[in-house]
Specification:
Length: 295
């Protein structure tokens, strides 16, 4: 995936480990399973007897972190910061921290890089978790946060005809000073998942997964900003390890494509909603870990 624009960054350093993980999954999937009558166990290390009943369901919890992102939503985030920078340098916006220096030495100001991060927390259900093909459902919470050192900025209100010349000018705040991580979007999602397992009876079980889903949430702080409605689809490769009877751990790498629309927000007031794309798409690669039970 191509790097983000100059205003944004994800955890690009994790690209190498993700590629290595994908290679390990493919290698594990191509390794032959241990014969059932081999010494030390059956079915690739599974210590259950052949008469044991295969579990019909699996339930797991999962956490994932974004690695890279691209798309029109990411571009609009960088474009919005470019616009803010240009308005401050042109002195169309007044910033108490920046404007006195701009008036003295000229348009020098550059907004620092926008550092993005994405979390995903999921509860997953699988049907027939030890069959070659299976299906399931997920309920997820997904967010995107960003950290950028923003100055406070204001726009002058034009004088009204009835105002006296000595009346103090009015200011409307556009951005508030921020040096902390901001929530840019928070979404609840529901997915349908379809699994293909390379070694369904083995203790080490590589798998491929396709998913489709929808979500709804908010821009800005949780439950306070304009709405977000989105639909998404994704592909994933994972590796599950059944380390004890009925218990497993897994790792997963995925690509998710989102198409979203958002409600309106003020063009001038960016104190609560910094970026509002209205419509757009985004592709996020993600690395995840999880744990679950078979029953």
């Amino acid at each position: 995936m191509s790097p983000l624009n100059r205003r944004t960054s994800f955890l690009r350093s994790a690209i190498g480990p993700l590629a290595l993980f994908m290679s390990l999954v493919v290698f594990a999937g191509s390794a032959p399973a241990q014969p059932a009558d081999a010494p030390g166990g059956n079915a690739g290390g599974d210590d259950r007897t052949g008469a044991a009943r295969a579990p019909k369901n699996a339930l797991s919890v999962q956490w994932g972190a974004g690695i890279t992102a691209a798309g029109s939503v990411i571009d609009s985030a960088g474009g919005g910061l470019d616009l803010l920078e240009n308005l401050i340098n042109a002195r169309l916006l007044y910033s108490p921290e920046i404007t006195p220096f701009v008036e003295t030495i000229g348009p020098f100001y550059q907004i620092p890089e926008f550092d993005l991060f994405s979390n995903e927390v999921a509860i997953n259900y699988e049907r027939d978790p030890e069959a070659r093909f299976g299906w399931g459902a997920s309920f997820k919470y997904f967010d995107i946060t960003g950290k950028v050192d923003l100055p406070s900025s204001y726009i002058f209100s034009p004088r009204l005809p009835f105002e006296l010349p000595l009346d103090p000018p009015l200011f409307y705040q556009v951005t508030k000073r921020s040096e902390q991580r901001l929530t840019l979007a928070a979404v609840f999602q529901a997915d349908a998942n379809f699994y293909w397992r390379f070694r369904p009876d083995a203790a080490w079980n590589p798998y491929a997964k396709a998913s489709v889903g929808v979500g709804r949430g908010w821009l800005g702080d949780f439950g306070r900003g304009p709405y977000i409605e989105e639909a998404h689809a994704g592909l994933a490769l994972g590796l599950r390890w059944r380390y004890a009877e009925g218990l497993f751990l897994y790792v997963e790498g995925s690509y998710q494509y989102y198409v979203a629309r958002t409600g309106p927000s003020s063009f001038l007031d960016r104190t609560e909603v910094l970026v509002n794309p209205r419509r757009g798409d985004v592709i996020i690669s993600r690395a995840s870990i999880g744990a679950g039970v078979l029953y």
